[in-house]
Structure formats: C-alpha cells, structure tokens
Specification:
Length: 435
C-alpha cells in the first residue's frame, strides 16, 4: 500500500504553524495575560498566585521535597547549602500506576489510597524516622488556588488524572491526614507549589536572569515572575510568581485532529494548548493522523511521544527502526516511502508543539518588557520533551528569532533538570525563614 499523496499533504498541512500564526498566538497570549492580571475570569489563563517570588540563593538547611505531578512520584531529602549549592541526601520514587497491579490515578481509585501511597513514600524517604522534625515542600503539579504558600485547593485534574475526592480539596489537608494515619507526626508540610514554580525557583537559586519557568513533558505549563503583584503573605523577592496554567490557553485554533482528540479526552473543552503541544498527547495526534492515511479512521494505534522521538532520531537510509516501531503499532510492515511520510508527520507535530510553546514565552517576555527593553534572560525548562525530543530546542530558538528579531539574542532556554524536587525544598526553606 502506498499512502495517497493528496491525503498525506492535507494531513501534514494541518500541523503547520506558519510565522503569521505564531505572531497571532503570541499576541493573543500577551493580551490574555493583560486581561488576566486585571481579572482572571476574563482570560483563558488562570494566573494563579503562588505566594513566592525569587529566592535569594542563600536558603539553607535540609528539607523534604515531595514531587507529585506525573505518573512517577518522587520524595527527596535535599540539603540546601546556600550560594546556589545543594546536595540530594536521599531520593525515592515510585509510579502511581502499574498496569495490572495497582492504579491510584484512575476513576476507581480513592483519594485516601492516593495520599496513603504518598505517605508511604515519605516514610521511605525519612527511613522510618518518626522523631526528627522535617519541613516538607510539596510540588503539586495541577491547577490549584492558593491564599497562602501552604494551602492549595485543587481546581480540576489535568493530564488525564481521574481520582475522585481530590478536586475541590486542600491537598496538604489530605496529605496531613494520610501522614497521621501512618503515625508520622514529625513531617510538617509548609509550602505547596506548582512544578513550573519549582523550576523557576530552582533555576533562580543557581543563576541570575531567570523570570520564566516552564514544564515541557507529559503536561505543559509556564509560570513567570510578575513584578506588579505583591502580597504581605508572599515570600521572596521581585514580586510574585504566577502559575499561568498556560496549558489551558484557548486562544489558538485547533485542527480537526485536535478537536477530535479533545472530544474523547477526560476533560473535553479544557487544556487546548496542552493537548496540542505536550508529550501526553503528541502520540495520540500522530495515531489519528496515521489512521487517516491507512484508512483505519478511529483506530487507536497507541503511539507515544517516545515512539515519535525514536522515529525522528532514526536517520538511517532505510529507516529500519522507524519501520519496526510503526509495524508494531499498526500491525503491518509499510513501504519505505510511507514510513518516511509518518516520520515527517511526527516531525511536524513536534515542530508545531515547540513553536506554539515559544509563542507563550514571547507573550510573557513582551508583557514583562512593557514599553521598555527586553531583558537579557534564560527561560528555565524541565521535562522529558524539552530534554530528549529531537527538533525541540532548535525549533524553539528558531521561533524566538522569528518573533523577537534581534532581541532574540538576549533570550535563550536552559534545561533545569530535577527542578521540581529542588524547587520544593527551596520553597520550604523560604517558608520557614520566619518560623
Ligand atoms: C498540567 C498541570 C499543570 C502542570 C503541568 C506540567 O498542565 O495542569 O499544573 O504544571 O501539567 O506538569
């Protein structure tokens, strides 16, 4: 079988993000920021207050860091040494779901099971020590409203999490209850932050010139330091970091695959940018596009972003690796020409993702600069897609250049690996300074 060229070109063009589109999305993003600062109800960005600004870099002491936001939960004991230095004393981690064994994120799980699992991991991180006092920073990577640094109420699950009994609840209340059930009375949660905030804190602890923190992984979201927001309950310097929940940005046009996927997702109508750009969804989009080429519309091939990255990495003349991956997913061996087409589609989906995400960065950079000069800065990013997916870094740089022109020389992106954990420890340190 050879794919129909016309159908292929039409599917491919769906994923194109032209320079004009980029400018429009970045402009809309900036407008949404401005409207959100006045009243978040008028913006598709949630603009959630974090109650932290920048750390000084001199935070010190040993803290517990709970990193909860993807399928893997990690708990670390981190010693902050000041001057941007730190040491990971102990680190444990386990998945929230092992197919066939247990599942704490599905519809049939309960909040108690989920938080008991977290308490068990915390117990493991403190090696059963129920005497020494530990302050805990919690990176909870879902949209939550806060009225201080330690109380975060989950608004809505994202990333296809579906555990009942957590939406609308204060997450550290659930965690505290689970700690008590386990007989742990010496661990005190003192800070809850989003993973984007954690990345910003972690990168700013080590480097100057960081105002934007982002996650580009299973999910996607960005936060930034807004100098005009102040609150007496806010710790740190330079204003307040706002968690935009930019994965929920809606002012961009979905293509027909985006719309079809949205209809069958856990939360239809939510998280448009995230569904168009993050790792959790790229494989789904590729699968739907491929099904159109094979004439098996509606079939779920189960492509993942890891498959896509391996296919794009395969630069051998016969694309054997890519061919094998596709054959396993769609159940038949394709001709080289068709394999090339699928690889090209995968690349187009990744490039669109990197370009759209860059629009949100540029919207923030414009907003922070106002009428003035764009500052020299690094955008801190953590996440497997940013770290490992081919084509991403160069396409972010290219889109920055398209949108910022000569000013692009002042802006680059840096990987802040493991920022979710380190940031939680820093937030805990910032919170206990006044204790
Ligand atoms: C989802 C969550 C957001 C988080 C992001 C990255 O978008 O809603 O809070 O920051 O995933 O993990």
């Amino acid at each position: 079988m050879a794919f129909n060229e016309k159908i292929f070109q039409s599917v491919l063009s769906e994923f194109e993000a032209t320079p004009e589109m980029l400018r429009e999305v970045a402009t809309n993003f900036r407008k949404d920021l401005q409207m959100g600062l006045r009243n978040p109800d008028n913006s598709s960005l949630r603009m959630l207050k974090s109650y932290v600004g920048l750390p000084s870099g001199n935070e010190k002491g040993e803290f517990l860091a709970l990193d909860f936001g993807g399928t893997n939960v990690r708990v670390s004991r981190i010693k902050l040494k000041g001057s941007g230095e730190f040491e990971i004393v102990r680190r444990v981690g386990e998945p929230l779901i092992v197919p066939g064994e247990y599942d704490y994120i599905g519809k049939d799980s309960t909040a108690e099971q989920m938080f008991d699992f977290l308490a068990k991991l915390i117990d493991d991180a403190i090696e059963g020590d129920h005497d020494t006092k530990f302050y805990l920073g919690h990176t909870f990577s879902f949209p939550s409203t806060q009225d201080d640094l330690n109380n975060a109420r989950l608004i809505i699950w994202t990333k296809e999490f579906a555990t009942p009994g957590v939406e609308g609840e204060v997450v550290n209340d659930l965690l505290n209850a689970a700690l008590k059930r386990r007989g742990i009375n010496n661990v005190e949660p003192v800070a809850v932050i989003n993973d984007t905030v954690a990345v910003l804190l972690s990168a700013a602890y080590k480097n100057a010139g960081i105002y934007i923190g982002s996650i580009y992984a299973t999910g996607h979201n960005t936060c930034y330091l807004e100098p005009s927001v102040h609150d007496e309950k806010c710790f740190g310097q330079g204003g307040m970091i706002l968690n935009l929940e930019s994965g929920g940005f809606m002012k961009l046009t979905p293509n027909r695959f985006d719309m079809e996927f949205d209809r069958k997702s856990e939360k239809p109508g939510e998280q448009r940018l995230e569904k168009m750009a993050s790792g959790r969804y790229m494989g789904e989009l590729l699968g739907m596009a491929v099904a159109e080429l094979t004439g098996e519309n509606g079939k779920d091939y189960g492509f993942t972003s890891i498959d896509m990255s391996m296919m794009i990495f395969d630069e051998t003349p016969n694309l054997e690796k890519a061919s094998d991956i596709i054959a396993k997913k769609i159940g038949k061996q394709l001709e080289l020409d068709d394999v090339k087409k699928i690889r090209e589609l995968a690349s187009a989906i990744v490039i669109r993702s990197a370009r759209l995400i860059t629009c949100s960065f540029v919207g923030i950079i414009w907003q922070r600069a106002g009428e003035g000069e764009i500052e020299k800065q690094h955008i801190a990013i953590d996440g497997s897609v940013y770290e490992k997916m081919p084509l991403v870094k160069e396409n972010i740089a290219k889109a920055l250049a398209e949108l910022l022109g000569a000013d692009a020389a002042k802006v680059d992106t840096i990987l802040d690996n493991g920022g979710s954990g380190l940031g939680a420890a820093i937030a805990a340190a910032m919170a206990v300074v006044d204790k």
